[in-house]
């Protein structure tokens, strides 16, 4: 009985995770899978804590755990897929003089990264 409950709990977890990822890709028109690789490549984790990214323990910028659940990002931007991707691609255009540097992230890569961040539980 306990084994059955644990197994169905695990299946439910995996289904929820899968649904969150599918929904995140649809919302952003990006790919969470490519976003994961882009986050590692740009070393966003040198400044941010990002769950699921090895070595992403930076404390310069805000912790990105659950960033999808926040109403406001980057100080004064309402949190939607377009605004999040725009900020990731061009933080200095969105917040001139802010502490997040321009890193040369393309618009497509920014959508992928936004998908990864929204796909977290
Ligand atoms: C040199 C350090 C640094 C690097 C590297 C960096 N960031 Fe940031 N990031 C910051 C700082 C500082 C802020 C807060 C900026 C602000 O509010 O103006 C920030 C803000 C953010 C926010 C808004 C979070 C919130 O809750 O307001 C997101 C999302 C984000 N960064 C994603 C990324 C991604 C993705 C990368 C890699 C492409 C990255 N950052 C690389 C320093 C960095």
Automatic annotation (TrEMBL):
The keyword Metal-binding applies. Keywords: Heme, Iron, Metal-binding. It comes from the Bacteria. It holds the Pfam family Cytochrome_CBB3. Residues 30-121 form the Cytochrome c domain. The keyword Iron applies. This is C-type cytochrome. It comes from Sphingomonas floccifaciens. The lineage of its organism: Bacteria, Pseudomonadati, Pseudomonadota, Alphaproteobacteria, Sphingomonadales.
């Amino acid at each position: 009985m306990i084994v059955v409950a644990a197994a169905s709990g695990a299946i439910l977890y995996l289904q929820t995770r899968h649904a969150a990822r599918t929904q995140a890709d649809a919302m952003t028109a990006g790919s969470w899978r490519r976003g994961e690789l882009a986050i590692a490549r740009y070393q966003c984790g040198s400044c941010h804590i990002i769950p699921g990214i090895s070595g992403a323990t930076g404390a310069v910028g805000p912790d990105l755990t659950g960033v999808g659940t926040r109403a406001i990002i980057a100080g004064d931007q309402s949190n939607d897929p377009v605004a999040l991707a725009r900020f990731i691609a061009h933080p200095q255009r969105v917040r001139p003089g802010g502490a997040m540097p321009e890193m040369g992230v393309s618009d497509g890569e920014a959508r992928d990264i936004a998908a990864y961040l929204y796909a977290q539980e």
